[in-house]
Amino acid sequence: MPEGYLPIFALGLFAAIFAVAVLGLAKLVRPSAPGEVKQEAYECGIRAVSDSRGRYTVRFYVVAILFVIFDVETIFLFPWAVYYRQLGWFGVAEVAVFLAILIVGYIWAYKKGALEWI
């Protein structure tokens, strides 16, 4: 049984050695000219006004989490779209229920005020 895993371990070892070798080669080849401007946090020409570790309101995180949740759920529509003709009306009913649950989630988030910015 362990003989079947040998190619996987060999590939993993090769990938690790390759990654270390490429990073080491890049360190030897690249130009290194650190300076005051290069060591700054931003090289866009605008100096930082305050510390980047400032506190943000929780509302930003809630909106980000809602976006991720609803965005990932809409990814489930792709397989349905691929097999649309094979699923028939049963597939249409499944997606209707799925989208209804998604819309109820949006309405709930809106009523809770999670989508309000001010």
Gist of the model:
The chain has 118 residues and is an all-alpha fold. The chain has a single domain, classed as Methane Monooxygenase Hydroxylase, Chain G, domain 1, CATH 1.20.58. Helix content is 65%, strand content 0%.
Give the overall shape, derived from the CA principal axes: flat
Strand content: under 5%
| Count of individual domains | 1
User: What value does the average pLDDT take?
Assistant: 82
Topology order in helix (H) and strand (E) letters: HHHH
Distance between the termini: 61 Å
Rg over CA atoms: 25 Å
Task: Note the total helix count.
Answer: 4
Please give the CATH architecture.
Up-down Bundle
The CATH class label is: Mainly Alpha
Structural class: mainly alpha
Low-confidence stretches: none
Please give the share of residues in helix.
55-70%
Look up the CATH topology: Methane Monooxygenase Hydroxylase, Chain G, domain 1
